[in-house]
Structures are given as C-alpha cells and as structure tokens.
Amino acid sequence: MRFGLLGTVTVVASGDPGGGMSGSTGADAGGDTGQGLPRPVGSAKVRALLAALLATPGRAVPLHHLKSALWGDAPPTTATASLHNHVARLRRVLHEEGRDVSRLRAAPPGYVLDIADDEDEFDVWIFLGHHAAARTAHRAGDWASVLAECGAALALWRGDPLSDVPLSSDALRALAAHLTEARLLTMEWRFDAELALGRHQGMAAELAGLAAAHPLRETFHRQLMLTLHRTHRQAEALAVYHGLRRTLVDELGVEPDSAVQATYQEILAEPAQTRAAPGVPAGEPAGGGTGGVGGVGAVAGVTVPGTGRGFSGGATTDAADGTAGPGGVPTVPGPPARSPAHQAGASGPPGTAAATPGGAVSVSEPTRASAPVLPVPVPVPGWDRSAPEQAGAGRTSSRPGQDRAAHRTEGSGDTGEGPGGGDGDRPGAHDRPAAPVRAAASAGLPPAARRRPAPAQLPADTPDFTGRAAELDTLLAALRGGADHRGPRVAVVSGMGGVGKTALAVRAAHLLRAEFPDGQLYADLRGFGAGGARSPADLLARFLGDLGADGQPLPEDPDDRAVLWRDALHGRRVLLMLDNAGDAAQVVPLLPGGGDIAVVVTSRRTLGELPGAARLALEPLSAQEQRELLVALCGRQRVAAEPEAAAGVLAACGGLPLALRIAGARMAARPNWPLTALAERLDGPGGSRLHALSTGGLAVQDTFAMSYVAMRDGLLAADRAAARAFRTLGVWPGHGLDPSAAAALLGRTSAGAADDVLEALVDAHLLEAPQPGRYSFHDLVGEYAAVCALAELTAAERRAALRRITVWYAVTVAASLAVLAPEGHPLPPLDEQPALPVVEFTSDEEALRWCVRELPAIKEVIATAIAQGWPEIAWRTAAGLFGYAQAYWWTGEWTACLEEAMACVTAHGDVLGQAWMHSRLGVAHGMAERYDVSLGHLHVARARFEAAGDQRGVAAILTNLTALHRGTGEYGLALEYGHRSLELHRSLGDFDRVATVLGNLGDTHLYAGDPVAAEECFRDALAAWRTRGSMVSIARTLTSLGEARLARGRPAEAVDALKETLALLDRLGDRATAADVLEVLGRAHLARGDRAAARACWEESLGLARAHRLPAEEEAALRGLAGLDTE
Q1: d(CA 14, CA 2)
Q2: Which tens digit of pLDDT belongs to each residue from 727-762?
Q3: 1061: confidence class by pLDDT, cuts 50, 70, 90
Q4: 213 near 184, Cβ under 8 Å?
Q5: Got the DSSP string for 184-202?
Q6: Residue 704: inside a domain
Q7: Of the N and C termini of the chain, which has fewer Cβ atoms inside 10 Å?
Q8: Using the 8-state DSSP alphabet, how is residue 99 labeled?
Q9: Torsions phi, psi for 767 (to 5 deg)
C-alpha cells in the first residue's frame, strides 16, 4: 500500500488494478507503474485524519492533535466518539487483502499509522530522499545528478500538498508549508543544473511563471534573468531585474541580494552569447558539466581565492557544514564574489580551467571527439546552389590521427571550404568528424553531384516550442546513438493527431543539423490526410535527385531504386526525416543499409514492424507545459489576469499543442476579448468545443478525421472493423472501459472478441490504454468519436448500444452486491440479460476492487438510464451500490444517486422501483445518522413493498427498523419490529435470514437489559446455524450466547460456550476474533473466582489485539488486567 500527500491525500493499494498516485516513473510510490488504484478516502474529516497520521508515520499521534486536525481549536463535545468513528472508517479504507494486521492501531496517547521503513510506501519520503540526493549533488557541482534527482523528486507532485484537506491545525499548516518550500528549492536546483548544462532553451516561460507566482523569491528572478540573457533577450532580462528591485524596495525596503546584483552587472557588461568552451557544444560546459549559475561556471576543485569555497551552481556551502533553514528545509547560500580571474577573463595553459568572457569556466583543450553542435546556415531562395563545393572538404577524419587528405576524392581540389563555400571558416567546422565520401562511380551518382551543396530541407523550427525537455533528450539520444553503436539509427515518434510529433522531430533535427553535414532530407509521406499516401518508389526518386541523381535515368523497379538509394547513402552523414508515415511498409524501403545515418519517423501508428527502431510515444503536454504554451501564445498578463478562465481553456484543450495553438490564434486575432469568452465557447454542449477549436486552415477535428477516415475507408477489413468500433464507442459518454464493458457496448459475446479492434485503435492513437485491461478516450478524441456516432449511426443503433452497456453494468453491480451483502435483500433480476457472461466475483475484496475502479462508469450508467427513460436499470444500479457504500461509508454521493433514480421511477410510475429507492434512502440517511429522515423513508418503503406484493422487501424493512430503533435507544420499538420481521421471514421459509433476525433480537434484548430473552434468541439462532453448517455464524452466535449467560450470572455455562467458540475459531484460523472472545472469557473466569485463568485470558487477548492492531480489544484487555492489579 502506498500513501501520498504531494497533492490530494491519496491511498493506493498495490493489489488493486489501476493507476497510481502520479505520473512519475520508476518504482517510486508517487510514480506508480500501473499497479494500484487510488482508493476513495471518504469525507474531508477522514482525509484530515489520515494526513495528521501521515505527518508522523510510525509514531503515535495524541488524540488532542488528531482532534485539532479534524476540528481546529474548537472540537465539539462529541469529538472523541466521532474520532473513533472516523478511525473505523479509515481502517476500512486501509484494509489490505491477505493482511490481517491493520496498519492503523491504538497506541497511547492516541493512534499510530505504520509504514514500512524499507519500502517505497510514502511519496513524501521518496521525495525527500531525492531532495537530499539533489542537495548533495548540487553542492558537489554534479549537474547531471542534480537534474536526475530533481526530475525524479518533482515528478512525484500531483498538485499543492494536502490540497483536499482543510488545514485546521498548526501541524498540518506547517507540514504543507514545509513541503511547498522543499518543492520550490528543488525547482531552483533543477534550474541551476539546466543553466549549468547549457539547457536554457525553453526555460524562460516556466521561470517567468514561477517568478510571477513568487515575487519575493530572488533565485527564480536571477535564473530568469540569466536565461533571458543567454537567449539574446537582454532588455527583458534587465526588466526582470528592475521589477524585482522595485518589489523588494517597495514591500521590504531592501535591495536585491548579491547574486542578483552580480547577474545584473554581468548582463550590462557582456554581450548576449551562449557560453561554450572550445570544442564543446554551445551551451554545454567544458569538462563534463560544470556551468555556473548567475554567469559563474565551475570545474571540480576550482575555488574562489580568499573564500575557501568552491562554485556549486551559483550556490556556495562550507565543505564542513550543510545548514538547514527554519523547519528543517535546506537552504543554499548565495554565490560568492567573483574572483579576479573571472573579472579579468584570465586564461591558462592548455588543459587548464580558464574564464571565458561570459564568465564561464572552460577548458582550453577540446574534451571530446564528437561533433560540436554549432548553427549551420540554412539555404534560402536565391542562394547559388551551383557554387563549387567538395563533399568531404573542411572536415577531419572520424578516426583520431588520420590525415584529412586521406579523405579527398581524386581530383577534388580541396579548398578547405565547407558547404556553400564558407563552412570551413566557422568555429568548430574543422573539428567535425566525417566518414569519407565514396567515389561518384561507386556511389551511382554523376561527378557533378559532388559539386552541389548538401541538401538542407528541414521545415522551419517552431520559434515558441515549449516543454518536451525529457522527450527531446530521449529523441536526441536515440538519433545520436551510443558510443558503441554501429550503423543507422532509426527513431519513431508516434502519437495522436495534434500532439506535436512533427514539432518535436523538427526541433530535434535542427539541433542535430551540424552533426550531419552531408545533408538533411525531409519528406511528408502523407500517410494520413488528403492526397493519398506517397509511394516509396516516388520518394526514392526524389531523394536520389536531392543527392545529385536528377537528370539521370533511374530503374523502374522500386527494389532496384532502394538498392541505389542505400548505395548513395554509403559513406555519408545524412539526417532523414520521414513525416506522417501511414504504415511500416511505406518506411522500410527508405531506410539506409548502413553508415552514419539518422532517421526520424513520425506517425499516428506505433509502427511496431520497423526492426531495431527506438520508439517514443508522445503524450499530451503536462499541466505546466500547457500553461507555458498558453502564456507564450496569449501573453503572461492576459493569462494571469484570468486564472480560472485560463484553467478552463487548458482543460478544454486536453494538453494538445495543436488545440492550444488554435486557441492562442483565436485570442491573438481578438486582442480585446477576455479569456473568459473563449473558455465559455469551449465549455459548450457536445461538439461545440471541436467547432471552437478551429481557425483559418487549422482544426482539431480535421486532424482526428485523418486517422479515422483512413481506417473507415481502408482496404483492410480489420481497419474498417476498428472504425466501426470507434464510432460505436463514441456512443458511451462514460469514463474508461475494461474489455468486458467494451464488448458489451460493441455487441460482442466475450471480452476477448473485442480485443483486436480495441488494440487496433490504440495502435492508431485513437484510443488510449493507460494500463493493461483498461481503455479510454482522450477528451477531444472522445468528443470526435461522439460526432462520428451521431453522423454515421442511426438513432436506433445508438440506443441499442447504450442499452447493451447499461444492462451489463446493472447486472454486474447486482453480482457485486450478492457477494458484498449476501444476507441482505436480493435485488430482483432484470428481465433482460447481457449477451456476454457476467463477471463472477470470488471474494468481497475482488467485488470491492471492481466497484472502486468502475464507480465513475456506474454513476454514468444511472445518468444514462435516466436520460433514456429506463427506470428499471436506473434504480437497480443505484440500489446495487449498497455493498460499496457500506464498505466505505460512502453516503453523500450515494444519496444523490438514489434521489436522482427516485425522481426517474416516480416519473414513470414504477412502484417497485420507488419501494427500493425509499428503502435504500432510509439506509443511507441512517448511516449518516439522520434518523428522522431515515425513518420516514423506511415507512414509505414498507408501504410500497406491500403495494407491490414484495413480502421479502417488507421483511427487510422491518429488520432495518429494528436496527434503527435499537441505535436510538428505543428498545421497545426495536423488539416490536424485530418480532414482526422474524415472523415474516419464517412464513417465507427464508431460514438464513431467520437466524440473522434472531441474532439481532438477541442483541436488542441484551442492550435492553433482558439477558434471559437474549439467551433464548441466541439458542434458537444457534440451532438454525448448526442446521446450515455455517461455522462463522455458529462462532459469532456462541460468543453472544456466552455474553448472555454471563449477564444472567451463569459464568460456568458462559465458559463452556466461549471455549467452544475458541475451538471453532482455531479451526478457522481466525486469531483476530479470538482476541475479543478471550476478553469475554476472562470476565467469565473472574466471575467464577478464577483470577489466574482470567489473567491468562486477558494477557493472551492483549497479545492478539496488539499483533492484529485491534484498539478496542486492546483497551478492554488492559482494563481487565488493571482491575486485577488494583483489587
């Protein structure tokens, strides 16, 4: 089981199928790998209780602290009793299958929640572990480790800490503040590392948002200044400084700290440039990663004269000490004064640390043999492509020490110039390794081909490309390959339409241009969209022409062209971008056979058939990335002025960059419109959001249509079947579906019969599979599927599909109720049964897991049945939720579902449905201790059952009235209703429920002080259970019988009954229940005068109670032992 406070208060049981607490990776608790579903924790009071216990896990929290967490400084007079009720409800939430020892146990002076120290069970512990590792790496200047640890730490966060808990106590407020501060500090360290590693591109938007949200946090402002400066935005960087200074002076009366001042002076003194040491990629620190923050770089061991301290990303610490700020939150001092060497820009001998004019420490000797990432001019229209150029000129061998002349082709006349006649003059141009270019004859190209410039066909990069840092790193690594990689590298970027595949691939390709000096080729394969897919043969002809074969006759056979293409690529370093591929067959002929070639493919399909390809499945943007993009498109002030409207726009766009760009374009064209106007348009009825997300030639709906139409009109029967499934799935407005529910909707007879079409839709990114056995639509794709269903299915087809899935859910909910509440009033079966088999639950744990996972869909079933006018489905589904509601004390939402179903059955005159809804509403209000309301519903339900002729329903109501009046202390009424229920169940021959009612009557007599009548009821119940052979029920009734005999002053007979109980429990292996029975047996022995036997029972009971964490039994045993010691 795992617990989370880094967002909403969350509990995830590892045995439950489903999603986890967050989207982080690895085995961290917060980054669930798909095992575990968040359990509903219940009311705000239960969440506050759990948060208070998690504040000090494994340690006892005093009762007065828990009361403060739940009620603040003014707890009610009933706080102690209510607290125990909330503890009991929390125990139900924390129940784990196969674990008979509760995590939540009584421990003076309160309660303790146990969490294993050696397991990743608590997201706060995991976060603080990464946080501490990041701090250590930060102090050591190990920027790669800082980045990794900070990324892992921040990925655990799901929102503000304890966001769904009222912070009523000082302890919870302090905890939330501490976690928030630690999170912000982790962000600062991450930005330090990004800057040190020269990865400042795209950081400005995120830093600007943080600086605006934290106007007095100087580190964010300093980092933003530096980022803007390094991206040639000096005026904006200076404006940030002046804004910060104005805020500090106006609000605090202080000037910015020395680190901010130093960065300001640096910006004034230096031209904007990207710092890099010779031979090191622009923006990457020399020596393996020691760039500074605030303009000061660092190399391991470099210290500032006179300080004895080393540079650590702009933050310095004493080597002997690691201080912590208030509340234990680590603090990092500001940077030291810059050394004279830095101020003077001193340099040293080769291989030593030296300060560059920008203030970054560099190494004067190149530190690696790989190609530096330097900008390469892109040819523009009118450029003279006929200028002389030699394919291999101006570059060194890829093998160290090999003379460049060895690579000159015969008669090349090497001038030292690169492509376009000027490459050799650029810094670093002569450091790029390149493989030799083969002779034209062996390459199959005419000699003139070697005189044309290298093709540079990449589309323009997106100027405001936002986010995707991790994905970009993954793609770049795949395309570069490892040190031991041989041969071409192929990477496939897949994802749904509009998710930004092409933008990411183009950004990566531009960053790699200089590493592929023999050309960058691009083609839109038109696998999806108008115009039809381009044939590999045509693309091969074009590519061969781009490399110099234009005007030469090419073979007609596509395979021969592919051979020529592979031969032409041999010995070249080329980057190939294949955009919008329809399938693997379109790509395979275009792949190189060997050499230093990188191929990036984008497709809406996963293209699993491509051998050896690295794959990157692109998901929608994260919440932070979405906001950054909206800010970039609409302006920071506009977004900040209307935070709720901005949140609405982001939610409507579903993380799709295309949708956000369309929304941004609409707002840019309407500068006087508030964001609220767009948010309202995007929040309209079905289909209107897709209509609003279109402008000019762009439309979100069109990009989805490309995928769907390609399937619908495809040549393969499997594609057409998947398209039919897509539009049928669009009928269902619910949340996710498992294979059985999907099969019901699609009209299949088994879950397996739906697998093929579901997986085909997943491969086409028209459906998502967030975890095994679970399918769902992206919000916008789901809306498009609904549009397709409305346009291409008849009303009768849509209604039939809804009927199939609602019937299946209603019947399955009833099956879960039969397992969770087997002694209750069984739901009458529907006349109609689903075509596929109903789920068979083998245990109450399995039934509860299903209810937890499917609860959103079950509520949607009730709403759909009401809308379609199917009251028999609505009330059965609502009534069937009793098992789930009882297990989790889920009364609020359940009551709302029941009331909605009640309105439906009333409107349709369904008398039986009205009886059931009044009955369940009586139970729900009784659970919520609204006894007057409960009593009214139960009496109406009784009358309705009588009118419908349902005598079992009447008997169930009488049983509920017995329990209700016993709970209010009205024992006379409780006994009256109990006897009526007993007589009715006997007349119906319902012997299991006869025994249950006898037990209830016995309890009532015992509460009312009549142990004689209680014993008689228990004896009769025991006889009935012995006939049925139920050992559990026999053991339970024997315990009650022992209590009654003890109350009658017959302790010896009580001892006999209780010993028989213990023997049965021993056969059942139920040691937890034995703790309660031993406590009663101890009292019986004491009543007989056998103090030694009483002590032995209570000591054994105490041991079992502590072993199984049973606080009530523990307290009772301690009370008995204390009584012995004081007598």
Answers
A1: 7
A2: 999 999 876 899 999 999 999 988 888 888 999 999
A3: very high
A4: no
A5: HHHHHHHHHHHHHTT--TT
A6: no
A7: C
A8: B
A9: -140, 150
The C-alpha angle with vertex 638 and arms to 635 and 642, in degrees rounded to 5, equals 140
Count of residues for the chain? 1127
- Statement to judge: residues 610 and 637 lie in one domain: no
Helical segments of 252-397, H only = 258-269, 340-344
Q: How far apart are CA 1078 and CA 1094, in angstroms?
A: 9
Whether 740 is in a domain gets the answer no
- Contact between 307 and 316 under an 8 Å Cβ cutoff? The reply is yes
Q: b or e along 903-915 (b: 16 or more beta carbons within 10 Å of the residue's beta carbon)?
A: ebbeebebebbbb
Pick 272 or 642 by higher pLDDT. Answer: 642
Clarify whether residues 340 and 204 are in a common domain: yes
Q: How far apart are CA 310 and CA 335, in angstroms?
A: 10
Read off the tokens for 52: 């208070």
φ, ψ dihedrals at 938, nearest 5°? -65, -40
Domain count, the chain: 5
Question: At 324, is the secondary structure helix, strand, or coil?
Answer: strand
Beta strands in 788-922 (DSSP E): none
Instruction: Tell me the C-alpha to C-alpha distance, in Å, between residue 790 and each of 454, 737, 748, 781.
Output: 51, 20, 21, 14
DSSP code for 86: H
Helix (H, G, I), strand (E, B) or coil at 950: coil
Looking at the structure, tell me whether residues 93 and 229 fall in a common domain: no
Inform me whether the pLDDT recorded for 447 exceeds 50.
Answer: no
CB atoms under 10 Å from CB of 539, counted, come to 22
Cα separation of 715 and 286, whole Å? 56
Using omega within 30 degrees of 0 as the cis cutoff, is the peptide bond preceding 453 cis? no
Fill in the DSSP letter of residue 762.
Answer: H
β-bridge mates for residue 600, sequence order: 491, 577
Its pTM surpasses 0.85: no
Beta strands in 142-272 (DSSP E): none
Q: In terms of residue numbers, what domain contains 565?
A: 469-617
Task: Judge whether 294 and 335 are in contact, CB under 8 Å.
Answer: yes
Q: Give the Cα separation of 649 and 302 in Å (integer).
A: 49
CB-CB contact of 1065 with 1073 (8 Å): yes
Least confident of 285-289, 894-898, 1100-1104: 285-289
Distance CA 814, CA 637 (A): 54
Domain CATH code at residue 231: 1.25.40.10
588/666 same-domain check: no
Most confident segment among 25-39, 492-506, 1099-1113: 492-506
Per-residue DSSP letter, 306 = T
Pairing label, strands 361-363, 396-397: unpaired
Around Cβ 440, how many Cβ atoms within 10 Å?
A: 17
Compute the C-alpha angle 687/693/698, nearest 5°: 125
Q: How far apart are the first and last CA of the chain?
A: 45
- Identify whether residues 100 and 151 lie together within a single domain: no
Taking Cα atoms as reference points, which of 830, 942, 929, 936 lies closest to residue 880?
830
d(CA 245, CA 239): 10
